[in-house]
Design brief:
about 140 residues, 3-stranded antiparallel beta sheet, homotrimer, 5-stranded antiparallel beta sheet, 8 strands
Chain lengths: ~140, ~140, ~140
């Protein structure tokens, strides 16, 4: 059995943000609770933002990941031809493919089986990305 | 219920290519139509090509992503020891792991729930990669 | 139907390691055999190690992928602020997000539908990462 939940996130600043609570709250509001055993996928319907899993504790990890990403995929590379949507656009597409468009997490005992230090990250790769649409799929 | 479809893609040149139509056509030919609610995974059975999701509109995104990837994982790095299969081989393995071997997309209302600007990309990372084998899995 | 198997890997040295046999053995011990048709996901419950799919044959691919990764995400970057857990920590978080926390593979005819040259890699990105917890999910 597969149930989909559509969730529109509010605007986030460029950078990495933990959205585990937003995902869990959307499941609770729509399903009451998660199944005892299952899988949860979160999919982002955009090509200039990403989803990944990383440390949920020290915010410095998110800061460093953003700094690193901006060096990894810099703006205004002289060979870029996809330039008319702004300096941040092509680097955002690159980061979207490097970090990925979805995360899939086991559900065990009615809870996301994340490790102690794991959280779900939204990677907002544009300066003014606006709100972002997610599809949460719960399989059981 | 899980149904697998094996699809052999024709040869593509090195670079990124949109294959959303090929995936949807294979589903239509094998299943008639997609389930109303479900999930679709596409998996590539190779280690020198990748699957990712990115912009389906302006072809310049695919050009820039290829240019970027070749700078990100350059050929003939002096420290490479896996060199006997050609200059393009080890960079192709690297790109395969950075971009990934599969994409998983929700199916809603009998259609892939891709965002307006999203398409499925084949990353062909070899100069002469030949045809590539995919497994499409439809879960409902 | 979804069954989860928890598997604790022994310590591995920093670098990339093929763990396909460990995954298949855990399935055999817990399920007897894989379903005829299904999907298998492997999820790692850590943020400084990763899972990816790459060549299962020549060990030089794993050596080069490790060398490359250390250049891609170097230690002691002057802008890092997440530094108190050791020089290898922030690069490990970066690699975890670039390579990813899970792999999902079709099961066909009771076997993992990996390509001839594909194996499941553990990316151990810390110098002393210790044992690592995986969740294997079999869907059918």
């Amino acid at each position: 059995m597969i149930t989909h939940i559509q969730l529109t996130l509010p605007r986030f600043n460029r950078g990495f943000h933990i959205i585990t609570d937003e995902i869990e709250r959307a499941c609770e509001e729509n399903l009451g609770r998660l199944p005892l055993d299952g899988m949860l996928q979160v999919f982002i319907q955009h090509t200039s933002a990403s989803l990944t899993i990383n440390e949920n504790a020290d915010p410095s990890v998110r800061v460093d990941l953003e700094s690193y990403s901006n060096k990894l995929a810099p703006e205004r590379e002289p060979y870029f031809i996809h330039t008319y949507e702004g300096d941040d656009d092509m680097p955002a597409h690159i980061k979207a493919s490097l970090y990925g468009s979805s995360v899939t997490i086991p559900i065990m005992n009615g809870r996301l089986a994340l490790g102690t230090w794991q959280g779900i990250y939204l990677g907002e790769h544009r300066d003014h990305g606006g709100s972002r649409n997610l599809v949460i799929s719960v399989m059981s």
